[in-house]
Specification:
Strand content: 5-15%
Number of helices: 27
Distance between the termini: 50 Å
Largest sheet: 5 strands, parallel
Radius of gyration: 45 Å
Strand order of the largest sheet: 3-7-6-4-5
Length: about 725
């Protein structure tokens, strides 16, 4: 089949010629095993009798040609036996060995051909035995040799190429030339390879000239960064202890500096009641050490004595209260800091007594807008410097965060994706109740709280309690009637599933609750089930006004509903966006239809890779070639992310950390990414440029993609 087997066959024929010169052809007609034993030494054939040995020795002389002397007959017979076996491999059964004339010349020619072919293996890069020319089938070898012998244009410019090689040698580019030739780099990529080699040389020159670069020793950089993280963590952790020590020190100094106030304060504390006025009168200096911070609602500020002055007044939820409600606190401070959210907060009226009827009168739209612009946040914003906090630190749900950001905050909020979205677990989804229809209410004309939606909401609550009991949950709805029905149905379900009682009724820091949107302004949970609470008529029409969502201020209530979930939200709806008649609906109902359309459009959006960092693009190709799932520019926030068997890793280079502080880049950002479910790896540009394969191998090892399956022996039990 190939030159090697041809050599074996020719060598056999040469050996057969030598044998037939000394023995008759009949020697190949029978087995020689007994003759070999008879001619062996007696100690090797003790079982054969002398008479039998003499008989066989006489027989074997009949195979020897007359006048031929055999020095070692046993060795000759063993050689004939081997030739006989090998002849049967190449010749048909029963064929007598025949040797053609001139076999020695043919064998010599075969050896020369094999030697010539072996000399071609190295230039052709055929290093393995299977790829060598002498191992190719004869037909394939002929085709290969014809191809090598065919006329080539490469010889036409041999002189010019020799001159180019001489020039490259003068420029000390021989190693580059050999590397390009060994890797068979196509002509279209030679320019890029030359540029890469130039930058590599420039980098090496810089590393040699500038000692501050540490010779690109990234291990030293990693140790320095690790030391910084440890020191920074210790500094942050010790701030609370330092503050406690400072307050204690101020108190001890005050006891020494104002002993009279200490004695008066001690007498005052022995009384049954101590007000702010009595505290200030008894110890005007020590009171600041014993009570440096005061907490009060806007309606309790008047109970604090006017003699108590504050360096700073912090207004929390300033967008939900008016300036008049906070003026008592504002006038007491030298500085005022107001926190609020103008999107979801607006001042609202409240009752201090039980009304004769529970009917609510909606304020006109213009009056509601005026009330919103009269909030403490809005009024103070016209006088004081304003700073927008645009970074979200919520651990999860960037699908939901981006939707809310785009719809309600004009795209100003910055959030980091969580690993679950890359694994196919969205933080917001629609749950459409296909048979969610009912008869219109005879009074309002709307379809409110259909049975199918109640059942679906309860199913989702039970599913959450079974699978994620460690995460808090809230059911949110726009219908007060629907909230009552869902609450009753969930309580009824606990009787059927007593194992859910602890989650539904247990005492938790964030207990399970069912609330309307108006009552959930100050509430938030890990996960929220937003069951809208309104359905379709049997004819498929949506006649409901969606309660508070359809009244003035409904857009802000919708923003409240969409911002109550920290991780994920499920919207349970009996209708699709196209079912809502925007010509008949107003306020938040129209915004709800647009929101549902945005969710559906986002689910169908394909991500666009970011190829702005060439070294990360190159690394991504190497990782993808190793069987890993990769994404460049994930959500426009992470440079490169990789996953394998449910484990997600985000990779950032030095370029992603420009413009940030050391604390942000080395400690806070990695911690945030880990809270979001990512494994974090920062690679230096030195590593990506000089040895990308080593970086790829490290990533594969981190994800466990190089681990071999563990096998154990299995015991096989045989039954009788």
């Amino acid at each position: 089949e190939n030159i090697v087997e041809l050599g074996i066959y020719l060598r056999l024929l040469v050996d057969l010629r030598d044998t037939l010169d000394k023995f008759l052809p009949d020697v190949f007609d029978r087995s020689l095993s007994e003759l070999i034993v008879a001619t062996a030494s007696r100690k090797d054939a003790t079982e054969m009798s002398r008479a039998n040995r003499r008989r066989l020795k006489k027989l074997e002389k009949e195979y020897v040609r007359q006048g031929v002397h055999i020095g070692d007959l046993n060795e000759a017979l063993v050689r004939i036996q081997q030739q006989r076996i090998l002849w049967q491999r190449f010749a048909p059964a029963g064929a007598t060995p025949e040797v053609p004339v001139g076999i020695a010349d043919v064998h010599a020619a075969q050896l020369q051909v094999a030697q010539d072919l072996s000399s071609l293996d190295e230039p052709l890069g055929l290093v393995t035995r299977e790829s060598q020319l002498i191992m190719l089938p004869v037909d394939a070898l002929l085709d290969r040799m014809e191809g090598l012998a065919r006329e080539s244009d490469a010889l036409d410019n041999l002189l010019e190429r020799a001159q180019v090689r001489s020039t490259l040698a003068d420029l000390q580019l021989d190693p580059l030339l050999h590397d390009l030739a060994s890797r068979h780099v196509p002509e279209s990529q030679v320019a890029a390879e030359l540029e890469l080699a130039w930058w590599q040389s420039a980098l090496e020159s810089m590393l040699e000239a500038d000692r501050a670069l540490l010779g690109a020793n990234t291990d030293v950089l990693d140790r320095l960064e690790a030391d910084f993280r440890l020191v920074d963590e210790a500094h942050a952790a010790g701030s609370a202890h330092l503050l406690g020590w400072q307050l204690s020190e101020n108190w001890n100094i005050g006891l020494v500096d104002w002993p009279d106030e200490a004695a008066a304060l001690k007498r005052a504390l022995r009384g049954s009641h101590l007000g702010s006025r009595q505290l200030q009168d008894a110890a005007p200096h020590l009171s600041r050490a014993i009570a440096p911070i005061w907490l009060a609602s806007p309606y309790e500020v008047h109970t604090i004595s006017d003699t108590v002055q504050f360096d700073a007044v912090i207004l929390v939820d300033a967008g939900a209260t008016t300036l008049a409600e906070n003026v008592g606190a504002i006038r007491r401070g030298r500085q005022v800091v107001a926190f609020g959210d103008p999107v979801i907060q607006t001042p609202a009226a409240f009752s201090t007594a039980v009304a004769a009827t529970d009917e609510t009168v909606d304020p006109p739209e213009g009056e509601l807008d005026a009330l919103h612009s009269d909030s403490a946040l809005a009024r103070l914003g016209t006088l004081l410097p304003t700073l927008s906090l645009t970074r979200s630190y919520r651990a999860g749900g960037e699908d939901l965060a981006e939707l809310v950001n785009r719809r309600f905050y004009g795209g100003k909020i910055e959030s980091i994706p969580w690993a679950g979205s890359f694994l196919g677990h969205p933080s917001i989804r629609l749950d459409f109740v296909t048979d969610g229809s009912g008869m219109p209410d005879p009074v309002s004309g709307g379809v409110e709280s259909v049975d199918e939606e109640v059942e679906r909401a309860v199913e989702l609550v039970i599913e959450h309690a079974m699978t994620r009991p460690q995460e808090s949950l809230m059911v949110l709805t726009a219908s007060a009637k629907h909230a009552v029905r869902v609450q009753q149905a969930v309580l009824a379900a606990t009787a059927v599933h007593p194992e859910l009682s602890d989650f539904i009724l247990g005492d938790r820091s964030e207990p399970f609750t069912v609330a309307t949107i108006e009552h959930a302004v100050a509430e938030s949970r890990d996960r929220v089930i937003f069951s809208i609470g309104y359905g379709r008529t049997p004819h498929g029409r949506v006649l409901s006004d969606f309660g508070a969502l359809g009244r003035p201020g409904g857009e802000r209530l919708l923003a409240v509903a969409m911002t109550r979930a920290r991780r994920a939200m499920v919207i349970v709806t009996c209708f699709e966006p196209a079912d809502i008649d925007e010509n008949r609906m107003t306020y938040g109902a129209v915004a709800l239809a647009e929101l549902l359309s945005d969710i559906e459009a986002r689910e169908a959006t394909e991500p666009v890779p970011d190829d702005s960092e060439p070294m990360l693009v190159d690394l991504a190709r190497r990782l993808e070639g190793r069987g890993l799932r990769v994404a460049l520019g994930h959500r426009g926030k992470l440079g490169l992310v990789v996953s394998h068997q449910g484990v997600c890793l985000t990779i950032e280079s030095d370029a992603a950390l420009r413009g940030t502080s050391l604390r942000e880049s080395l400690r806070l950002r990695p911690e945030m990414l880990r809270r979001l479910g990512w494994h974090y790896l920062r690679v230096h540009a030195f590593e990506l440029f000089s040895d990308p394969d080593a970086v790829a191998a490290r990533i594969v090892s981190m994800l466990g993609a190089d681990a071999q399956p563990v096998t154990e022996p299995i015991m096989v039990i045989q039954q009788a």
